[in-house]
Amino acid sequence: MWVTSMPQVWDEEARSRKGDDMMSPAPAAAMLGSLAGWLSRAADPPAPKLCGSPGGPPVTAPRVALRDGRHLAYCESGVPKEQARFRVVFSHGFTGSREDSVRATQEVAEELGVYMVGFDRAGYGESDPNPNRSVKSAALDVEELADALGLGPKFYVIGISLGCHAVWGALKYIPERIAGAAMMAPVVNYWWPGFPADLAAEVYNKQEVGDQWALRVSHYAPGILHWWMDQSWLPTSTVVAGTTPLPNKRDAEIRAKLKADGTFQQKMELATQQGIHESYYRDMMVMFGKWEFDPMSLPKPPCPVHIWQGDEDGLVPVVLQRHIASRLSWVNYHELPATGHFLSPVPGLGDTVLQTLFGNAKQ
Which region ranges are annotated with the description Disordered (predicted)? Predict the structure, then answer.
């Protein structure tokens, strides 16, 4: 009974929210908090299987060593970095990998002189986990990767979906290093203070019940997220399961094809080979946890910033993206009609992103 009744408490508390306590259901938060203390001790996630360790997955990709001893695996594309006019670090989304990109054509990359490096974010693929992962650490990983590869004093960042938290982090923590930024269908945190409480609560409650609970646990009781997601009798994330209703036809067809030919499962196995907690679940805890800053309170950065968003996105509410754009006058907002969440496969969009970022840019 408590699982099905608590969303009602959520709604009531959301309507009475004051200040920064948006959607903070007192009974729900208190219950999750008390459960977290016991369950975090009783149901710790299994230790990660580090790449290159005995019994762990092999290291097959080039990697850079970070100051804290971790490694990041990466994949280069475009023109050789020594010949590039523009150097880009790409941050993949939820379930993604170092091999993801904006899918621009090689012809456009060569015409513009673009070098791009994608990397497995911490805990994904062949990059070492970071038990202290945060929005700030994501930004610093981007900076360390760029420095290790010699990308120069300034470089560009592009993020997609949940991977855009690293872009927001870069704009917050290392703005002097960023020459330009682009975010494609960036995932939002419903608890960012800049969102009107009633609007955030309204769209939050339109999600599937399992997604509401997965985000709620990620925010209020991250210590029990692994345990929660492992319980078949509890409402859990449809995004992880790949069953979220997708209103956009192209999105639905793409996902159906990926699941039918086994690509969906293969991508999941590669992304989570060191442990699903260190990849997927830490992503959820970082993205939907308590941020140190509100992106809507950021000052204007010393570089152009672009956001692309589909108006039929079934994972990121377009109304919240519009609100962010309305709050940040320095964001160049591009809304795509009849388009969903999966932007990389949109014909020609990868080329458009690069041409927008670099077509009139000065080296």
Answer: 1-23
